[in-house]
Amino acid sequence: MATMTLRTYLLEKVRVVSPAPNERTYHVFYALLAGVDDEQRKELMLGGGADAYRYTTPVELGRPPNEAELTLYREEVKRDKVAMGEVSEALAHVGMPKYDQWQAWRTLAAALHLGNLDFAGEDEADIKPGCEEALLAASELLGLEIAQVRQVLVTRCIKAAGEFIMKPNSREEAEVLRDSIVKAVYARLFDWIVGRVNDKNGSGALAANPTFIGLLDVFGFEIFEVNSFEQLCINFTNEMLQAHFTTVLFRQELELYRSEGVPFKQIRFTCNAVLIELI
After folding, report:
1. Would you give per-residue pLDDT tens digits along the chain (279 residues)?
2. Is 20 helix (H, G, I), strand (E, B) or coil?
3. 44 and 36 in contact (C-beta within 8 Å)?
4. CB 153 within 8 A of CB 169
């Protein structure tokens, strides 16, 4: 292989802040919490394991975990520790130095701290007492002033009659905004890493040599009790891929056989054009 390039087709950002029941968020968060040493943990201001952060806490069981569940949790922590080393090694292999890796870990830790912010008040939200430590940690790790982060979360700027007016967010609006910011931060970090991988592997050479092999990592078609818009996009994409597959494998081949007079047995296949048109 002379060169390669990666492109983000669809990142399931909703999984960062609200994974499906009995599922975990992206594994890198658990690897970070389990795999950093004591000094790094102190610098990242991480004060506990996965159960200390909203985005990595499993769905509540409504009861204390049994021994089998505790055993499974311990095994997962062991795997997460190993995964951290594997991720670091992989990033180094694609040309990401330790400094850049550390900036990625800082960003992920900041996302975890942001997720632990709760809000008081109903119509005029403010950071809930007891969450100042998480606010401080997130602000420092992102290189922002605490006042800036607080203002962004609890107020919004509206332009009316040529003037900008600051309006308070409700508690619900602040919570939605918190999760939206974390999803955006994660997506920017993901795209930045993809860009670094492309830089290392000489993606610019692709323009000079247009001959290529395309590989698509297909995501899963799933139906939940409550389906997000992102899940609809994922399922729609899978339907489009299925349509392309049937067109190339069946329709075009059968037309080729007919044009060349090759005898063949009629093949029946399901056409999903109606579903695609519906969406």
Report:
1. 567 778 887 788 888 998 877 778 899 999 999 999 999 999 999 988 888 899 988 655 445 556 666 666 677 888 888 999 999 999 998 888 999 999 999 999 999 999 999 999 889 999 999 999 999 999 999 999 999 999 999 998 887 777 888 898 999 999 999 999 999 999 999 999 998 888 877 655 555 556 666 666 665 667 777 777 877 888 888 888 888 888 887 888 888 888 888 888 877 777 888 888 888
2. coil
3. yes
4. yes
Which is it for the CA torsion 198, 201, 202, 207, positive or negative?
Answer: negative
Those residues with Cβ within 8 angstroms of residue 273's Cβ, 6 or more apart along the chain or in another chain: 243
Contacts of 4 (CB under 8 A, 6+ apart): 198, 201, 203
Structural tokens at position 53: 């952060």
CB 182 within 8 Å of CB 17: yes
Q: Is 3 helix (H, G, I), strand (E, B) or coil?
A: coil
Which of 12, 195, 40 lies closest to 108 in space, CA to CA?
40
Structure tokens at 37: 């040493």
**Which residues in 111-135 are b (16+ Cβ under 10 Å) and which e?**
bbbbbbbbbeeeeebbbbeebeebb
